[in-house]
Amino acid sequence: MEDMQEPLIAPAGLRMGQGGAEQVPVSVYLLATFGAIGGFLFGYDTGVVSGAMILIRDEFKLNNVWHEAIISATIGAAWLSALIAGRATDVYGRRIVILSASVIFCIGAVMMGAAPEKITLLVGRVIVGIGIGLASMSVPVYLSESAPSEFRGRITVINNVFITGGQFVASVLCGALSYVPHGWRYMLGLAGIPSVIQLAGFVFLPESPRWLVSKGRVSEARDILVKIRSPEADIDGELQAISGAVAEAEEQKAGIGQVLRSGPVRRALVVGSLLQFFQQISGINTVMYYSASIITMAGVTDQSTAIWLAAATSSVNFFGTFIGLYLVEKVGRRPLTLGSLIGTTASLLLLGLSFQMAFDNSPEASLPVNGTCNYLSCGVCTSKADCGFCFMGDIDNVQNSSCVQTNVASFNEKSQDGFCSNSTLLEDHVVTYAYDWCPYEYAWLSILGLALYLLFFSPGMGPMPWTINSEIYPGWARSTCTSLTTSVNWASNLIVSFTFLTLTEVILKHGTFYLYTGLAGVGTILFYFILPETRGVPLEEIESLFSMSLWTMSRHTKKR
User: Fold this and answer.
1) Which of 155, 227, 404, 539 is the most exposed place for a label (fewest CB within 10 A)?
2) Per-residue pLDDT tens digits for 457-471
């Protein structure tokens, strides 16, 4: 397909920007846009599953274990596929792996949308995860190797703009489709559209110049560099630097053994892995995968309202990413990361406090009930997997309340066939069954906490782990290290998403967010001491930066 690459490559004279400084060619933005659709797919899946699972849970009668399994299946599959993606991109090329990811994701989206029962849905989630894992590793590498060094941060952040954009689009669609019968099928199935767009676009896009040089196709690499660099760029100098890095790679085996034997690369790998670990362990995908569920936990009873509120918080995440896009080349990677972590920690603390206030002020059960759910307050009752809180009235006037076994109402002899369902009309009273939330007039505090969390997270800890990981490894180790750190991201994501609902039962909702608060605080302190600044450093020179100790790197950064 190499002869089909030409149409989307802009002429060398067509540039973006004004002024005398070297500008970004339009072709680089085309590469970034079509490449970053892989990020859009990841973002769409993250955003859509939050709203869809509220509807799926009711239709398929899912318990917490199945809820967590369907969400986490994609993450587990992405983790495993990310492990093999590094080798695949080295052997077959960055472009082929991205094309394959598009095809796989499309197949999975169709299967999810047509799923007749929960097992088929689970399989579809696994297939989608394979596509996401391949794209999440290969796209950042492709973008970093194609972008000029002075614009590399901005170009790679575009990938995160697409991730948060996908989350935003998905949340809006979820809100619109929540009124449609079986609307969750359309929510999941529509993910196939962007994957087809990426597949069509990448047929015409070029391969990474660095990968072409590694395969001895130097003249092709030079032709591509001419078209994706400004007229003032030193093409021959860059090509020589790439060739030198490739020659070094040929002398060293780029396996995990060689990576660990190299002090600078080992230090870079430690920093990169910790960035990916703390991005997830501070709870971001808990917030994204379960945002609608968290909003219902805060006391918002209507499903469509909860989905629309999740869309509103997702919009904060989307627009906040543009702050990172603007600041990444102005203030640098390190300040964005540290500032983001400080704000994230404070926001998680607010979330924890809001849920603790809801727990401490939850209404008491006024009518006792025999059985396994004989708890005296709504907070304790709804923390149990098989129990829920039945009540009449509204948030301000809870009446005839009782903790009952799931979908069983024994608190009132007027109940219809002993069944307590959400908003069931019982003569002139409305009976509400709250299985994971309590009536609480200050639910807006939790929603505010969610919005602030995403506002602080999106400019820094959202894009920076991917941006920094795409540029801190020498060419011979880049694919191996990026594959390893991407797998760390997915493994951490899997742990968090598969334990969130369980943690809310064991240590309660506020305890769960206090845990995330502590972990984010640890990350803030750690990166203050070990995170260097890589802004404007050419890829071929970053290894020398990591030749220092981690402590010396952070001190050196402050003097830059």
Assistant:
1) 227
2) 989 998 899 888 888
